[in-house]
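Listing S7. Sequence submitted for prediction.
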Amino acid sequence: MSVQRQNLYKKAWYLSLFTIFYNIIEGLVSMHLGIQDETLALFGFGIDSFIEVMSGIGIAVMILRLKLNPNSNILP
């Protein structure tokens, strides 16, 4: 595997981790404020953040799979 591809995988990995942790914090804060202010829209926004966390986990798993199996047919 080329050094450039390894660097891209590393950047993608860190971006996926950032997305996961950011959305966890965003979801907790939004849900807390939604409960505190009795705002269903803000509470729902917090729940949506946790759905985005699941998407971020899927992306992180895909990156790991590609990194561990660089000869797969997923990418050209």
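Caption to Listing S7: primary sequence and predicted structure tokens for the chain studied. The CA atoms of residues 66 and 75 lie 8 Å apart. The two ends are 14 Å apart (CA to CA).
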